[in-house]
Amino acid sequence: MLASLPPELRLIGGLAVMCRVGTPHRTTVDVDAVARDLPRVHAAIARLAVISSGGGQYRFAGDLDLDVIDIAAMTTDELIAELTAGAHPMTDLELNVVAHCWAHDSATTLDITAVDDETGGVLARADERFVASAEGIVAMKVTTVPLRASSRPEKKASDLYDLARVLVDGGMERGALRALPDALAQVVASRLVAWFVDDTGRDRTYRVVRRFDEPRLDLDAVADAARDLTT
């Protein structure tokens, strides 16, 4: 399915995390993506889908769901300038919009291959698919967590678990988050410290993510990674 999708799509979500950490990750049952000008690629996606219910939601054979978020038509810098024109701080929702826009624009290509775990034989492949960078995933996850409704605690837990895995195994170098726009980088850095470095926040985060125990998280390693990335 991935190989057949329009190349304009950028993968985000659990599949993107799996690609960036390069090791087994939590099970994901759908595919998430972002696109600029979704109406332009909608017809191509809808032709492949079994169901196209609107709003960027598609279902493919095998009950595989694809959710596509349509991002702003402008560049990230233009979007930030528009949202901060009144000299007011951006809301959580606005920060999340900016993060998705930046993740789209900073995505890079990967060859994605599924192999048989016993024989090593190639089962399927999708070459040169745009996937959100590790930094892009961090930005999206950090700005999404505060928006999660209290009625869906499992989604907040999976976001924090994904975030911790990317911090440790995403291949980011010290200070990598400086690549984010300043307005976004400051918020991302402060929340990472609050959730994974400060003692009270780490304890709370551990209680939230412990439902995911494979692969297990080493919160000391996560804290060290968060410090490296935010200093």
Task: List its salient traits.
single chain; 231 residues; alpha/beta; seven-stranded mixed beta sheet; 9 helices; globular
Describe the 3D structure.
- The chain has 231 residues and is of the alpha/beta class.
- The protein has one domain.
- Helices cover 47% and strands 19% of the residues.
- The chain has helices at residues 13-21, 38-48, 76-83, 92-105, 134-144, 153-169, 182-197, 199-209, 219-230, and strands at 10-12, 30-36, 51-54, 57-60, 64-71, 108-115, 122-131.
- Strands 3-4-5-2-1-7-6 form a 7-stranded mixed sheet.
- Helix 6 crosses helix 9 (219-230).
- It is globular and about 50 Å long.
- The model has no long low-confidence stretch (mean pLDDT 90).
Q: How far apart lie the N and C ends?
A: 40 Å
Identify low-pLDDT runs.
none
Structure annotation, total helices: 9
Number of domains: 1
Largest sheet: 7 strands, mixed
User: Could you state the order of secondary-structure elements as H and E?
Assistant: EHEHEEEHHEEHHHHH
CA radius of gyration: 18 Å
Helical amount among residues, as a percent range? 40-55%
**Average pLDDT rating:** 90
Annotate the secondary structure layout:
Elements: E1 10-12, H1 13-21, E2 30-36, H2 38-48, E3 51-54, E4 57-60, E5 64-71, H3 76-83, H4 92-105, E6 108-115, E7 122-131, H5 134-144, H6 153-169, H7 182-197, H8 199-209, H9 219-230
Parallel strand pairs: 1-7, 2-5
Antiparallel strand pairs: 1-2, 3-4, 4-5, 6-7
How would you summarize what this structure contains?
Helix content is 47%, strand content 19%. It is of the alpha/beta class and 231 residues long. A 7-stranded mixed sheet has the order 3-4-5-2-1-7-6.
